[in-house]
Q: What sequence folds into this?
């Protein structure tokens, strides 16, 4: 859970950097860990799908982070 808290506490620039191609897998791992520890199947599945579709999912994370201050589907769903 320390990883989740660390990611939550990152400044906006750090969150944006982790949205770039290749580094976006960090957000997928974040979703998987948060879903598994919180017993949230929806978030866990979203994290797995984020890895599978990583070729374009980074764009979605980047846009939503710039607009909302955090990537989409990082809250409990």
A:
């Amino acid at each position: 859970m320390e990883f989740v808290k660390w990611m939550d506490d990152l400044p906006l620039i750090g969150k944006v950097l982790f949205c770039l191609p290749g580094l976006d897998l960090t957000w997928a791992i974040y979703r998987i860990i948060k879903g598994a520890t919180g017993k949230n199947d929806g978030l866990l599945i979203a994290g797995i799908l984020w890895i599978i579709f990583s070729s374009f999912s980074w764009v979605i994370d980047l846009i939503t982070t710039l607009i909302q201050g955090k990537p989409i589907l990082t809250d409990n769903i």
